[in-house]
Amino acid sequence: ASSFGRGARMAGRVRRCGAASAVLLASLTFLVSERVSFVPAGAIGPRAVEGLSSLPELGAQIALADSSTPDLTPLEKYGPDPFFYTYIIVSVLVIVVSLYFITKPFWEQRWLIEKINAQKLKFITNESEVTPKEQFELGRMYNALKDFPSALAEFEEVEEDFDEIRAVLDPEDAMGALAARAQLHNSKGFALMKLEPPRTAQARREFVRAVTYWPEYPEALLNIGRELMKRKRFEVAVRTLNTALKWQPGNEDIADFAEQARKAMDGQLSEQEIKEIA
């Protein structure tokens, strides 16, 4: 009897659970069939509630909103990156400056050749208007180009007519004429020293002639000092370089050669070092 009673109670519970499940299922079916909106009015606003009468319409409108919103790029989302653009600008500047210094000797030589060609063309087309000063400048350009035979030819040709340079100077500028003559002999001596083989004796005479016209000419004194060091006359070289340094105290080349000449005079330099300096 007790077992029968327990079975009856369990059967009643099952029937009640089944009935509750049936009621819940019927309620859900009714809600869906009647298209009741589950979106709270306060969440999306009164106008949106009016337009959303059912769950399918809500899903359709959400999908439409998603499709109408374009994908934003990182630049549009976060704006430009200052570090990135600074890095690009600095990199470009470094490349440009590096290329300039790498190609600078080539461009300088090309510009020098163009200047020489323009000057020579003027000599050919307007030979009567060419002055000794312009021909001297052409010789100096050949020296800068390291075309020493051509430079020497120009200097020797212009030396014969160099007295005419006074015509392009002020009549009272006597020192200007003397300085111009000194520059001519110094440049000529430099070209003679750079020939292969070097014509040292002739170059020495040209340097001496340069300081004859301009006794304080620092570049000529420097060249004389270097030539004296080559002949191991260090004491005279020190005096000559000190004289040049007196007129150009800020010239690092003259100061360095004077210091090396003093060391050579005191026996602090080897033969190889003296040759390299001279």
Keywords for this structure?
single chain, 278 residues, mainly alpha, 14 helices
Instruction: Provide the β-strand percentage band.
Output: under 5%
Give unreliable regions as ranges: 1-5, 30-44
Radius of gyration, in Å, reads 49 Å
Provide the residue-averaged pLDDT: 76
Shape: extended
Helix content: over 70%
Number of strands: 0
Polypeptide structure, described:
With 278 residues, this protein is mainly α. It is 77% helix and 0% strand. It is built from 14 helices and no strands. The longest helix has 44 residues, at 82-125. It is extended, with a radius of gyration of 49 Å. The protein starts with a helix and ends with a helix. Residues 1-5 and 30-44 have low confidence and may be disordered.
In a nutshell, what does this entry contain?
By secondary structure, the chain is an all-alpha fold. The protein has helices at residues 2-33, 41-44, 46-51, 55-68, 74-78, 82-125, 132-145, 148-159, 174-194, 200-213, 218-230, 234-247, 252-265, 271-277. Helix 10 (200-213) packs antiparallel against helix 11 (218-230) and helix 12 runs antiparallel to helix 13.
